[in-house]
Amino acid sequence: MIKTILVPATGSQTDDGTFASALIVARAFDAHLDVLHARVDAAAMVASMATDGSGAAMTGGLVERVDEEAARRESAANQLFQRFCERERLAIADTPIEEQGPTA
To answer: What global pTM score does this model have?
Structure first.
């Protein structure tokens, strides 16, 4: 039986629909939603672009811009998750809570 559902969060407006779809399944199984937002490693991404040296000149300031965008998306994902849980009256916990109904 399903007890934990892994749900991706991107930090975009599509997250709400993803959360809602996962909640439908969670309600059917009294399951826990584990929401995951994977943040890009800006330095590693830019370094991979400049490994042969040809892109080194373009990377000035790029790490900061990529990192700022990653931080913005992380914050947005967190806010969307918090609002969704509040609206749906979902208990927020790191692990499933021993009670009836879904948690996140």
So the answer is: 0.80
Q: Is residue 94 part of a domain?
A: no
CA separation for the pair 51, 11 (Å, rounded): 29
- φ/ψ (deg, to 5) at 27: -65, -35
Please count the structural domains in the chain.
1
Measured from the Cβ of residue 99, the count of other Cβ atoms closer than 10 Å reads 10
Please report whether residue 102 resides in a domain.
no
- pLDDT 10s digits, 55-80: 555 566 777 888 888 899 999 999 99
Token pair 């990192």 is at which residue?
67
Place of tokens 């990529």: 66
User: Which tokens go with 44?
Assistant: 């590693």
29 inside domain: yes
CA distances from 9 to 20, 72, 88, 89 (A): 12, 13, 17, 19
